[in-house]
């Protein structure tokens, strides 16, 4: 069995300490319990795939992976939200779920999620 390095927050173990090598070296939360810079970069990359306006696409150099960065004015349209839900959950969200997201998250004047 794989012995993972102890988590700096043993009360909130990282997946790597439970599931072996899966997320080795990547902390989802920082020492204060906020999302880590690595997780924030991943979330921005995912958001960038579905947002409007689309980010500039960078060309990777060699084997380096390039994470997308959304423009500061980016938001998810209802269609972008449906596309994300379809890709991640296999189906668009119900109207009830969309209404909850709009109620609890930041939105544009037109209801786009930011």
Structural write-up:
The protein has 114 residues and is an all-alpha fold. It has helices at 15-19, 37-50, 78-89, 95-104. The model is unreliable at 16-21 (pLDDT under 50).
N/C terminus separation = 42 Å
Strand content: under 5%
Show unreliable segments: 16-21
Largest sheet: none
Overall pLDDT:
81
Secondary-structure element series: HHHH
Subunit arrangement of the protein: single chain
Strand pairing plus helix content: what structural class? mainly alpha
Computed CA radius of gyration, to the nearest angstrom? 17 Å
Helical run tally: 4
Shape, per Cα inertia axes: globular
Indicate the percent of residues in helices: 25-40%
In short:
The chain is mostly helical and 114 residues long. Helix content is 36%, strand content 0%.
Task: Chart the SSEs and their pairings.
Blueprint: H1 15-19, H2 37-50, H3 78-89, H4 95-104
Defining key terms:
4 helices; 114 residues; mainly alpha
